[in-house]
Design a protein that fits this description.
Blueprint: E1 6-10, H1 18-26, H2 29-34, E2 36-41, H3 43-53, E3 60-62, E4 75-78, H4 94-112, E5 118-121, H5 126-131, H6 139-146, E6 154-159, E7 162-166, H7 176-179, H8 182-198, E8 206-209, H9 224-238, E9 243-247, H10 252-258, E10 263-266, H11 269-279, E11 285-289, E12 295-298, H12 315-327
Helix pairs in contact: 1-3, 8-9
The chain binds 1,4-dihydronicotinamide adenine dinucleotide and the ligand NCC(=O)COP(=O)(O)O.
1,4-dihydronicotinamide adenine dinucleotide (NAI) binds near residues 126, 286 and 306.
EC number: 1.1.1.262
Keywords: Metal-binding, NAD, Oxidoreductase
GO molecular function: 4-hydroxythreonine-4-phosphate dehydrogenase activity
Length: about 325
């Protein structure tokens, strides 16, 4: 039995803060002893990250995963697919997006073959990934396609003991209302229940946000609560799920302060992400939930405005690494 998991760690979009974050996190002895970390990406990008962070990470370069000879080293698989001469930090690059997609493909295939116990990716840029030739609405759909998953997946955010998931995610706001259906709400409530149970929650308490101002005010301000959300909640309650709502979204974080819910189901991306990120920008994690491979990432993005300055906070990436190890069963 292995004492430590073998975890893939990608550098994210090279134009952002990803390689700097990877260098900073691997500087921590606590993080290094958690797993055998296998950095996958271009060595020159990794070196750029170390230089921006002002530190040097000891690692052993290997040609493939079979060359790992110790649980206690950091390894690098150099894909040699992106030279820092071809992009500028803080500026979107198609080349970098293409390398990001190639790197994630490589690392997910290793995980699919059980040669990695999980994957942590430093922040990527969705637009660059798309322009680089990976035509998916977001990385979750890209991962699902690579792993041959058609349904049953969704983003999950984790902030300490509080979990979040969403009825809609990376879609234009004008599509949200049509996607808030009874079936979808019921499915995501069930997804939240199953996810939290699988990580050890006993009878998790789930709260569901409304879509409209003041939960629609009896239909005056919108009818999705009456027609779609409430019936889905009632149906979930009848199946024994400990779920409440819909509650007005503008005060739902206040409710979380006074009543200890375990999971908030929101209707659209910014509804919960805004509050979640305010709770601790340096702690939030995103999990690609419902896939056969453990995949985590920090909840923040590529931060082009500070790329190359060495001031990025590695806290959320460290949390993503710790959670990935836990989800991998170690
Ligand atoms: N983990 C991932 O792969 C994620 C990727 N993204 C992608 O990142 C790109 C940029 O997204 P934005 O909405 O601009 O959000 P962002 O999170 O990149 O930046 C928002 C603000 O937070 C600051 N910030 C972010 N991370 C920080 C850190 N570790 N330390 C200090 N300050 C930090 C930035 O400087 C900026 O002012 C988009 O393409 C988005 O899709 C967004 C969230 C997660
Ligand atoms: N890459 C994960 C991701 O995009 C999650 O962040 P968010 O866009 O949902 O805030």
């Amino acid at each position: 039995m292995k004492k430590k998991p073998v975890m893939g760690l990608t550098l994210g979009d090279a134009t952002g803060i990803g390689s700097e974050l990877v260098a900073k996190t691997l500087q921590s002895a606590e993080i290094r002893q958690l797993a055998t970390w296998v950095v996958v990406g271009d060595e020159r990008v990794f070196q750029q990250g170390q230089s921006v962070a002002g530190l040097s990470v000891p690692y052993q370069k290997i040609a493939n995963i079979e060359e790992i000879d110790s649980e206690d080293k950091v390894y690098l698989i150099d894909l040699h697919n992106l030279s820092p001469d071809t992009y500028s930090l803080g500026q979107l690059s198609e080349d970098s997006g293409q390398a990001t997609g190639e790197t994630l493909t490589y690392v997910l295939k290793l995980a699919q073959q059980k040669k990695l116990d999980g994957v942590v990716y430093a922040p990527i840029n969705k637009e660059a990934l798309h322009r680089g030739g990976f035509h998916f609405q977001d990385e979750l759909h890209f991962f699902a396609s690579l792993l041959n998953c058609k349904e049953g997946f969704s983003e999950i955010n984790v902030m300490g003991d509080l979990w979040f998931t969403r009825i809609t995610s990376h879609v234009p706001l004008k599509q949200v209302s049509s996607l808030v259906t009874k079936e979808r709400v019921a499915r995501i409530i069930r997804f939240a229940q199953d996810t939290l149970t699988s990580v050890g929650f006993d009878n998790p308490k789930i709260v569901v946000a409304a879509l409209n101002p003041h939960a629609g005010d009896g239909g005056l301000l919108g009818t999705e609560e009456i027609d779609e959300i409430r019936p889905a909640i009632v149906s979930a309650q009848e199946q024994g799920i400990n779920v409440e709502g819909p509650y007005p979204a503008d005060t739902i974080f206040l409710r979380l302060k006074t009543k200890p819910f375990d999971c908030l189901v929101s209707m659209y991306h910014d509804q919960a992400q805004t509050g979640m990120k305010l709770l601790g920008f340096n702690k939030g994690i995103t999990v690609s939930g419902g896939l056969p491979v453990v995949i985590t990432t920090p909840a923040h993005g590529t931060a082009f405005d500070i790329a190359g300055q060495g001031i990025s906070d590695p806290g959320a990436t460290e949390q993503a690494m710790k959670l990935a190890v836990r989800l991998a069963g170690f």
